[in-house]
């Protein structure tokens, strides 16, 4: 709250404004002194390969693989991985939250051990898969942590089934697939990889499941296609997360934040899209704080106004 206080109480005096900017920088420095050095998490649990807790369920025409951890009497969290990932990808989060939560994580359709038509994937289809898993396990409502395309699945699920989600964490989400949402360099990388996949398929290469890889890449090329109106149908509190060097443009992330009814924003400094691994301690701490604490509406200033002006812009006017 102190940060916001000094952020908005600018006077007509340039020197006063500069002084207050210094106080903001100092406060941010103190806040991020908790910020850990980049590191990778290590766990002895074989996430994604754990026969003791893994199972298949026949869902919407495909065998979907999932694993469950923690006490079923605790609050349930769905942890949803990114495009091309698997349960294993989210090991840093599963290992943290299983102590106090009931955790469910699945290999998304046509990912990992899960089956699925490799010709075409949709976020709506995968969101329905998670609803079916909840029904299969007789779970009415959940918290969700989604990362990358897992965040897009989570937004789709919460928009279409708002009564099934109590809290939502969406990390590096995007509503659209084009350059207004994704950095051009990332789009070019994906396009080049898709061309190589097409060549592998043309040459009947059998070193990988290239049909599945194409479906995953085309999911990012053509989807998602959500609107701001879709976001407004989400009723639960949402924590929107990104890094300051993400594949998703920061302005697009802020637009998502601004169009949600109940939202908080968490931008991780000095890191990349891989923050769930390299900054997992910091990430898990803030996510758990959001999940554990009651959501409080902020009434001091309109969120739409917050990002239309800044201390720097105020100084530039002088």
Reported for the largest beta sheet, the result is:
8 strands, mixed
Encode the helix/strand succession as letters: HHEEEHEHEHEHHHEHEHHHH
What CATH architecture do you see?
Answer: 3-Layer(aba) Sandwich
User: How much helicity do the residues have?
Assistant: 40-55%
Distance between the termini: 27 Å
Q: Label the overall shape.
A: globular
Beta-strand content: 15-25%
- Stated plainly, the CATH topology is called Rossmann fold
Number of strands: 8
Textual characterization of the structure:
This protein is α/β, with parallel strands linked by helices. Helices cover about 40% and strands about 15% of the residues. Strands 1-2-4-3-5-6-7-8 form an eight-stranded mixed beta sheet, with helices on both faces. Helix 5 (about 150-160) links the parallel strand 5 and strand 6. It is globular, with a radius of gyration of 21 Å.
Structure summarized in a few sentences:
This protein has 318 residues and is an alpha/beta fold. It has 13 helices and eight strands.
Compile the SSE list and pairings.
Elements: H1 2-8, H2 14-31, E1 54-59, E2 62-69, E3 76-80, H3 91-97, E4 102-106, H4 123-136, E5 142-147, H5 149-160, E6 165-171, H6 184-202, H7 210-222, H8 228-232, E7 238-245, H9 250-258, E8 263-272, H10 275-278, H11 280-292, H12 303-306, H13 311-317
Parallel strand pairs: 3-4, 3-5, 5-6, 6-7, 7-8
Antiparallel strand pairs: 1-2, 2-4
What keywords describe this structure?
17% strand; 8 strands; 318 residues; Rossmann fold; alpha/beta; 8-stranded mixed β-sheet; 13 helices; disordered C terminus; disordered N terminus
């Amino acid at each position: 709250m102190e940060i916001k206080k000094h952020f908005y109480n600018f006077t007509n005096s340039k020197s006063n404004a500069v002084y207050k900017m210094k106080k903001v920088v100092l406060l941010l420095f103190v806040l991020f002194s908790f910020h850990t050095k980049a590191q990778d998490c290590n766990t002895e649990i074989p996430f994604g390969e754990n026969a003791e807790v893994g199972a298949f369920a026949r869902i919407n025409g495909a065998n979907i693989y999932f694993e469950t951890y923690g006490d079923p009497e605790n609050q349930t969290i769905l942890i949803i991985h990114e495009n091309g990932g698997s349960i294993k990808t989210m090991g840093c989060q599963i290992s943290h939250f299983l102590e106090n939560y009931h955790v469910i994580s699945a290999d998304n359709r046509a990912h990992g051990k899960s089956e699925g038509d490799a010709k075409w994937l949709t976020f709506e289809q995968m969101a329905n898969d998670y609803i079916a898993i909840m029904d299969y396990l007789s779970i009415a409502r959940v918290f969700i942590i989604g990362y990358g395309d897992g965040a897009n699945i989570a937004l789709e699920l919460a928009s279409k089934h708002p009564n099934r989600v109590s809290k939502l964490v969406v990390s590096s989400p995007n509503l659209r697939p084009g350059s207004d949402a994704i950095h051009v360099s990332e789009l070019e990388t994906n396009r080049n990889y898709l061309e190589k996949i097409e060549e592998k398929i043309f040459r009947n290469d059998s070193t990988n499941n290239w049909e599945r890889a194409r479906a995953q890449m085309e999911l990012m090329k053509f989807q998602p296609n959500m609107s701001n109106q879709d976001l407004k149908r989400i009723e639960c509190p949402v924590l929107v997360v990104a890094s300051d060097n993400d594949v998703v443009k920061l302005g697009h992330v802020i637009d998502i934040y601004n169009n949600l009814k109940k939202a908080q924003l968490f931008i991780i400094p000095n890191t990349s899209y891989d923050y769930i691994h390299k900054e997992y301690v910091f990430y898990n701490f803030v996510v758990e704080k959001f999940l554990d604490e009651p959501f409080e509406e902020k009434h001091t200033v309109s969120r739409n106004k917050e990002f239309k002006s800044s201390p720097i812009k105020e100084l530039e006017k002088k």
